[in-house]
Amino acid sequence: AQSVTQLGSHVSVSEGALVLLRCNYSSSVPPYLFWYVQYPNQGLQLLLKYTTGATLVKGINGFEAEFKKSETSFHLTKPSAHMSDAAEYFCAVSANFGNEKLTFGTGTRLTIIP
Amino acid sequence: KAGVTQTPRYLIKTRGQQVTLSCSPISGHRSVSWYQQTPGQGLQFLFEYFSETQRNKGNFPGRFSGRQFSNSRSEMNVSTLELGDSALYLCASSYNPGHKDYNEQFFGPGTRLTVL
Fold it and tell me: Which residues contact residue B41 at a Cβ distance below 8 angstroms, ignoring those fewer than 6 apart?
Protein backbone atom coordinates (compact mmCIF):
# COMPACT_ATOMS: atom_id res chain seq x y z
CA ALA A 1 0.00 0.00 0.00
CA GLN A 2 1.08 3.56 -0.64
CA SER A 3 0.62 6.68 1.45
CA VAL A 4 1.97 10.21 1.67
CA THR A 5 2.28 12.58 4.59
CA GLN A 6 2.44 16.31 4.09
CA LEU A 7 3.91 18.16 7.03
CA GLY A 8 2.17 21.45 7.68
CA SER A 9 -1.38 22.08 6.56
CA HIS A 10 -0.62 25.80 6.27
CA VAL A 11 2.62 27.45 5.24
CA SER A 12 3.19 31.20 4.97
CA VAL A 13 6.20 32.76 3.28
CA SER A 14 7.08 36.29 2.28
CA GLU A 15 7.12 37.25 -1.36
CA GLY A 16 10.61 36.55 -2.71
CA ALA A 17 11.43 34.02 0.02
CA LEU A 18 12.14 30.32 -0.38
CA VAL A 19 9.14 28.03 -0.60
CA LEU A 20 9.54 24.57 0.98
CA LEU A 21 6.62 22.17 1.16
CA ARG A 22 7.32 18.81 2.75
CA CYS A 23 6.17 15.40 1.62
CA ASN A 24 7.15 11.97 2.91
CA TYR A 25 5.93 8.79 1.30
CA SER A 26 5.47 5.17 2.17
CA SER A 27 5.42 2.56 -0.56
CA SER A 28 5.99 -1.17 -0.78
CA VAL A 29 7.17 -0.81 -4.38
CA PRO A 30 9.23 1.83 -6.17
CA PRO A 31 6.88 4.79 -6.19
CA TYR A 32 5.85 7.31 -8.73
CA LEU A 33 5.54 10.68 -6.98
CA PHE A 34 3.72 13.86 -7.96
CA TRP A 35 3.00 17.37 -6.85
CA TYR A 36 -0.28 18.97 -7.87
CA VAL A 37 -1.52 22.52 -7.31
CA GLN A 38 -5.14 23.55 -6.86
CA TYR A 39 -6.35 27.12 -7.19
CA PRO A 40 -9.73 28.11 -5.71
CA ASN A 41 -12.69 26.62 -7.53
CA GLN A 42 -10.47 24.74 -9.94
CA GLY A 43 -9.27 21.21 -10.52
CA LEU A 44 -5.75 19.95 -9.98
CA GLN A 45 -2.80 20.87 -12.16
CA LEU A 46 0.34 18.75 -12.30
CA LEU A 47 3.43 20.68 -11.20
CA LEU A 48 5.97 17.90 -11.58
CA LYS A 49 6.43 14.16 -11.35
CA TYR A 50 9.11 11.61 -10.51
CA THR A 51 8.91 8.25 -12.21
CA THR A 52 12.45 7.01 -12.85
CA GLY A 53 15.83 8.50 -13.66
CA ALA A 54 17.05 11.84 -12.37
CA THR A 55 16.08 12.41 -8.77
CA LEU A 56 15.93 16.20 -9.09
CA VAL A 57 12.79 17.01 -11.00
CA LYS A 58 11.98 20.40 -12.43
CA GLY A 59 8.40 21.43 -12.97
CA ILE A 60 6.34 24.34 -14.09
CA ASN A 61 6.32 27.83 -12.58
CA GLY A 62 9.87 27.47 -11.22
CA PHE A 63 9.11 24.60 -8.83
CA GLU A 64 11.35 21.60 -8.35
CA ALA A 65 11.46 18.55 -6.10
CA GLU A 66 14.08 16.02 -5.15
CA PHE A 67 13.36 12.33 -4.68
CA LYS A 68 15.38 11.04 -1.71
CA LYS A 69 14.89 7.33 -1.29
CA SER A 70 16.95 7.15 1.90
CA GLU A 71 14.70 9.74 3.54
CA THR A 72 11.49 8.64 1.75
CA SER A 73 10.94 12.27 0.93
CA PHE A 74 9.85 14.32 -2.06
CA HIS A 75 9.88 17.93 -0.87
CA LEU A 76 8.76 20.73 -3.18
CA THR A 77 10.81 23.92 -3.41
CA LYS A 78 10.86 27.24 -5.22
CA PRO A 79 13.70 29.71 -4.71
CA SER A 80 11.58 32.86 -4.76
CA ALA A 81 7.87 32.97 -3.93
CA HIS A 82 5.47 34.97 -6.04
CA MET A 83 2.02 36.17 -5.07
CA SER A 84 0.54 33.94 -7.77
CA ASP A 85 1.91 30.86 -5.96
CA ALA A 86 -0.80 31.17 -3.30
CA ALA A 87 -2.80 27.95 -3.64
CA GLU A 88 -3.19 24.49 -2.16
CA TYR A 89 -0.53 21.93 -2.95
CA PHE A 90 -0.95 18.17 -2.91
CA CYS A 91 1.68 15.47 -2.90
CA ALA A 92 0.57 12.15 -4.40
CA VAL A 93 1.93 8.66 -4.96
CA SER A 94 1.10 5.93 -7.44
CA ALA A 95 2.18 2.32 -7.17
CA ASN A 96 3.49 1.73 -10.65
CA PHE A 97 2.97 2.58 -14.26
CA GLY A 98 -0.35 1.64 -15.71
CA ASN A 99 -1.96 2.12 -12.30
CA GLU A 100 -3.98 5.27 -12.48
CA LYS A 101 -4.91 5.34 -8.79
CA LEU A 102 -3.32 8.30 -7.04
CA THR A 103 -3.09 8.43 -3.27
CA PHE A 104 -2.98 12.04 -2.11
CA GLY A 105 -1.66 13.76 0.96
CA THR A 106 -3.89 16.05 2.97
CA GLY A 107 -2.61 19.16 1.23
CA THR A 108 -0.69 22.27 2.23
CA ARG A 109 -2.21 25.69 1.82
CA LEU A 110 0.48 28.17 0.82
CA THR A 111 -0.02 31.82 1.69
CA ILE A 112 2.28 34.51 0.30
CA ILE A 113 2.84 37.56 2.46
CA PRO A 114 3.39 40.76 0.46
CA LYS B 1 -7.13 20.50 -27.49
CA ALA B 2 -10.05 20.91 -25.12
CA GLY B 3 -9.46 19.90 -21.53
CA VAL B 4 -11.46 17.57 -19.31
CA THR B 5 -15.00 18.83 -18.94
CA GLN B 6 -17.41 17.99 -16.16
CA THR B 7 -21.10 18.69 -16.01
CA PRO B 8 -22.83 20.07 -14.17
CA ARG B 9 -20.43 22.29 -12.25
CA TYR B 10 -22.79 22.69 -9.30
CA LEU B 11 -25.59 20.52 -7.96
CA ILE B 12 -27.90 20.73 -4.98
CA LYS B 13 -29.78 17.61 -3.95
CA THR B 14 -31.63 16.41 -0.88
CA ARG B 15 -30.99 13.35 1.20
CA GLY B 16 -32.27 10.13 -0.34
CA GLN B 17 -32.12 11.37 -3.91
CA GLN B 18 -29.72 10.07 -6.51
CA VAL B 19 -27.39 12.00 -8.76
CA THR B 20 -25.46 11.43 -11.98
CA LEU B 21 -22.31 13.35 -12.81
CA SER B 22 -20.71 13.42 -16.24
CA CYS B 23 -17.10 13.63 -17.39
CA SER B 24 -15.80 14.09 -20.92
CA PRO B 25 -12.09 13.25 -21.17
CA ILE B 26 -9.54 14.87 -23.40
CA SER B 27 -9.92 13.62 -26.95
CA GLY B 28 -7.96 10.38 -27.39
CA HIS B 29 -7.72 9.64 -23.67
CA ARG B 30 -9.01 6.21 -22.73
CA SER B 31 -8.71 6.17 -18.96
CA VAL B 32 -11.04 8.12 -16.68
CA SER B 33 -10.66 8.26 -12.90
CA TRP B 34 -12.95 9.79 -10.31
CA TYR B 35 -11.98 11.36 -6.99
CA GLN B 36 -13.96 12.78 -4.10
CA GLN B 37 -12.60 15.85 -2.31
CA THR B 38 -13.91 16.89 1.10
CA PRO B 39 -12.42 19.10 3.83
CA GLY B 40 -12.42 16.21 6.27
CA GLN B 41 -11.20 13.29 4.17
CA GLY B 42 -9.22 15.14 1.51
CA LEU B 43 -8.85 13.63 -1.95
CA GLN B 44 -9.97 10.04 -2.19
CA PHE B 45 -9.93 7.74 -5.19
CA LEU B 46 -13.34 6.41 -6.20
CA PHE B 47 -12.73 4.30 -9.32
CA GLU B 48 -11.05 4.18 -12.69
CA TYR B 49 -12.42 3.07 -16.04
CA PHE B 50 -10.44 2.02 -19.06
CA SER B 51 -12.00 0.82 -22.30
CA GLU B 52 -15.44 0.67 -20.67
CA THR B 53 -14.20 -1.59 -17.85
CA GLN B 54 -13.70 -0.70 -14.22
CA ARG B 55 -10.05 -1.37 -13.59
CA ASN B 56 -9.50 0.05 -10.10
CA LYS B 57 -11.86 0.75 -7.24
CA GLY B 58 -11.46 2.69 -4.02
CA ASN B 59 -13.07 2.05 -0.65
CA PHE B 60 -16.50 3.54 -1.16
CA PRO B 61 -19.89 1.93 -0.54
CA GLY B 62 -21.88 0.41 -3.36
CA ARG B 63 -24.03 3.54 -3.55
CA PHE B 64 -21.21 4.96 -5.64
CA SER B 65 -21.06 3.52 -9.12
CA GLY B 66 -19.78 4.50 -12.51
CA ARG B 67 -19.58 3.54 -16.10
CA GLN B 68 -17.70 4.43 -19.24
CA PHE B 69 -19.05 4.65 -22.74
CA SER B 70 -17.41 3.61 -26.00
CA ASN B 71 -16.38 7.23 -26.65
CA SER B 72 -14.56 7.21 -23.25
CA ARG B 73 -17.02 9.59 -21.65
CA SER B 74 -17.80 8.55 -18.11
CA GLU B 75 -20.59 8.99 -15.63
CA MET B 76 -20.70 8.39 -11.93
CA ASN B 77 -23.85 7.82 -9.97
CA VAL B 78 -24.55 8.19 -6.30
CA SER B 79 -27.77 6.69 -5.02
CA THR B 80 -29.56 7.39 -1.75
CA LEU B 81 -27.59 10.53 -1.08
CA GLU B 82 -26.35 11.26 2.43
CA LEU B 83 -25.25 14.57 3.91
CA GLY B 84 -21.68 13.27 3.95
CA ASP B 85 -21.69 12.93 0.18
CA SER B 86 -21.40 16.70 -0.14
CA ALA B 87 -18.07 17.15 -1.87
CA LEU B 88 -16.19 18.25 -4.94
CA TYR B 89 -16.09 15.36 -7.37
CA LEU B 90 -13.11 15.47 -9.69
CA CYS B 91 -12.63 13.55 -12.87
CA ALA B 92 -9.23 12.92 -14.45
CA SER B 93 -8.29 11.44 -17.80
CA SER B 94 -5.11 9.98 -19.21
CA TYR B 95 -4.02 8.36 -22.44
CA ASN B 96 -2.67 5.17 -20.90
CA PRO B 97 -1.76 2.89 -23.78
CA GLY B 98 -0.95 0.27 -21.17
CA HIS B 99 2.64 -0.48 -22.00
CA LYS B 100 4.51 2.79 -21.72
CA ASP B 101 5.73 4.93 -18.87
CA TYR B 102 3.37 6.78 -16.59
CA ASN B 103 0.79 8.91 -18.32
CA GLU B 104 -0.11 12.21 -16.74
CA GLN B 105 -3.62 12.54 -15.43
CA PHE B 106 -5.40 15.72 -16.44
CA PHE B 107 -8.08 16.91 -14.05
CA GLY B 108 -11.35 18.62 -14.78
CA PRO B 109 -12.70 21.54 -12.74
CA GLY B 110 -14.99 19.28 -10.73
CA THR B 111 -18.65 19.10 -9.85
CA ARG B 112 -19.55 20.55 -6.49
CA LEU B 113 -22.37 18.52 -4.97
CA THR B 114 -24.29 19.82 -1.99
CA VAL B 115 -26.66 17.47 -0.20
CA LEU B 116 -29.28 19.12 2.01
Answer: none
| A31-40, B43-52, B61-70, B93-102, range with the lowest pLDDT | B93-102
B30 neighbourhood in chain A, CB within 8 Å: none
Host H or E run for residue A13: strand A10-14
Q: Is A98 left (phi over 0), alpha (psi -120 to 50) or beta?
A: left
Say whether residue A46 is in contact with chain B using an 8 A CB cutoff. Answer: yes
A89 falls in which pLDDT band (50, 70, 90)? very high
* Distance separating alpha carbons of residues A65 and A33, to the nearest angstrom: 10
Cβ neighbours around B69 below 10 Å, total = 12
Chain A closest-CA separation from residue B107 CA (Å): 6
HEC letters along chain B: CCCCEEECCEEEECCCCCEEEEEECCCCCCEEEEEEEECCCEEEEEEEEECCEEEEECCCCCCEEEEECCCCCEEEEECCCCHHHCEEEEEEEECCCCCCCCCCCEECCCEEEEEC
Who's near B106: CB < 8 A, 6+ residues apart?
A: A46, B3, B4, B26, B29, B92, B93, B94
Q: What is the mean pLDDT of residues A27-46?
A: 88
Does B22 score more than 60 pLDDT? yes
Cβ atoms of A33 and A91 closer than 8 Å: yes
CB < 8 Å to B106, chain A: 46
